[in-house]
Amino acid sequence: MEMSTLESLRAPVEGDVIAPGDAGFEDARTIWNAMIDRRPAVVVRPRGADDVVQAIAFAREHDLPIAVRGGGHNVAGNAVVDEGVVIDFSSMRAVEVDPDRGVVRVEAGALLSDVDAAVAEHGLLVPGGIVSTTGVAGLTLGGGFGWAARRLGLTIDSLRSVEIVTADGELLTASEESHPDLFWAIRGGGGNFGVVTSFEFEAHELGPEFLCGLIVHPIESAREFLQHHREMAAKAPDELSAWIVMRLAPPLPFLPEEVHGKPVIVLAFAYIGDPAEGEALIAERYADWGEPYGKNIGVMPYTDWQQGFDALNAEGDRNYWKSHNLAELSDPAIDAAIAAVGNLPSPHAEVFIAHLGGAISRVADDATAYAHRDAVFVVNIHGHWTDPSEDEAGIAWVRGLFDELAPHAQGGVYVNFLSDEGAERVQDAYPEAVWSRLVEVKRRYDPENVFRLNQNIPPD
Question: For the CA atoms of 414, 416, 420, 423, what is the dihedral angle to 10 degrees?
């Protein structure tokens, strides 16, 4: 891109404008998933909504595609684009808490760790994900579930409003009262309808500490344990989130050294309620089951637990995911998952099974664009490795288990777990009536599909 062209962008933008050859460009084009290697024409790091308006106008004037980066954690790599404009919110991470109103305003570049730390000072919580380095923006726009979701609902269920720049450069406030069609769509429909610059959430009271922990069993007991977990999940209170990870054992300090690197099944749980009640519940239903390799159960601050899985999702590794929604954890699905764990393509690959339901399922299906609220379990097949030479084997393993599980799946998929899987798979994230309504909103706010670098909902 010619210098004079770049200067026409730099002049009105208060934030940083970074082009190839500039200091920091290589870092600016690098995102969490190392499988994504793209070179944008320019990266704009706005300091406010006005800079976003300028970046969109510049991209449209020069017919350049637009990518939007919140935390850069999306596995599909939509946060960066070849020969286009990246709107990178790294410089907009402010979190403002109004404890009297129980409201939190979050800029679009904030990570979950930013929000968790800010609200924890006031004994509050905004439901988020399970990895603290995740960007708030992408997580929210896709729905957002984590440890508090069964008790408090999805992240979008605590969203009160957004400020959003549309394709024509207009800055709008979208809420239940203002542009409610747009507000409905962005709660699960992703970044298809504009560039959100800030979010306003309702915050919920949370005690200073809560019960959480890990229980690790040998993979040989996985079938019986998953059958037991299926029964326990069916009668779990909303306060309990108990999720499954099957992988090679990391070097956790409470595990014997000889267990490190062995295939294991891990129960990770959090009890969003009275710790004493949670301890009694876990003791009754899980802690004394079988002969675990080890367990680590205790009371800790929410912020500490939220960071506990960050090391297993480090930036700079290679990731490829596929996912299914499940109405039940059937025996054939259990057997397929266990068999795949016997053939892991790398020490970092894993099968993750989240138990949903609870408050998530009690929101009307048509209340938000996230509509698969009847999913009881979500399985994410997490291909994760470090060496590019492992790409073929890793991708094949993920696709193989995905195909094995397909006959036992409910249909539908969590949009935030999609890799680059094509237009048909994007439609699987939305029931037909929801998809039709999303297309209508897209036509209204982005008829030319300016915002297409996402899990795209085309306007025609």
Answer: 50
The span from the CA of 111 to the CA of 136, in Å, is 5
Q: Can you tell me the distance from the alpha carbon of 255 to that of 252, in angstroms, rounded to the nearest whole number? A: 6
Of 63, 49, 14, nearest in space to 169 by CA: 49
Minimal CA–CA distance to 152: which of 442, 3, 360, 419? 360
Cα–Cα distance between 115 and 163 in angstroms, integer? 18
Give the DSSP letter string of 36-104: -----SEEEE-SSHHHHHHHHHHHHHTT--EEEESSS--TT-TT--TTSEEEEGGG---EEEETTTTEE
- Helix axis angle for 3-10 and 49-61, nearest 10°, is 150
pTM of the model as a whole: 0.96
107: left (phi > 0), else alpha (psi -120 to 50), else beta? beta
Where residue 186 falls among pLDDT bands split at 50, 70, 90? Answer: very high
Distance (Å, whole) CA 353 – CA 197: 32
Please name the amino acid found at residue 215: I
Tokens of 88: 């990178």
List beta partners, residue 198. 107, 163
- Closest by alpha carbon to 204, among 92, 302, 306, 282? 302
Strand partners, 378: 325, 354
Give the CA angle between residues 434, 189, 428 to the nearest 5°: 55
Instruction: Give the DSSP per-residue string, 199-243.
Output: EEEE-EE--S-EEEEEEEEEGGGHHHHHHHHHHHHHT--TTEEEE
Contact 348, 295 (CB under 8 A): no
First to last CA, the chain: 32
C-alpha to C-alpha distances, 413 to 175, 212, 256, 370, nearest whole angstrom: 26, 27, 37, 10
Contact 66, 85 (CB under 8 A): yes
Query: Quick one: CA dihedral 310, 80, 393, 129, positive or negative?
Result: positive
85-88 and 42-45 strand pairing: parallel
Q: How far apart are CA 449 and CA 438, in angstroms?
A: 13
In tens, the pLDDT along 305-324 reads 999 988 888 899 999 999 99
How many other C-beta atoms lie within 10 A of the C-beta of residue 421?
17
What kind and span of H or E run contains 141?
Answer: helix 136-142
**Distances 45 to 38, 108, 191, 366 between C-alpha atoms, Å:** 17, 11, 18, 35
SS3 140: helix
Query: In the prediction, which pLDDT does 165 show?
Result: 98
State pLDDT tens for residues 233-274.
999 999 999 999 999 999 999 999 999 999 999 999 999 999
Distance CA 203, CA 126 (A): 5
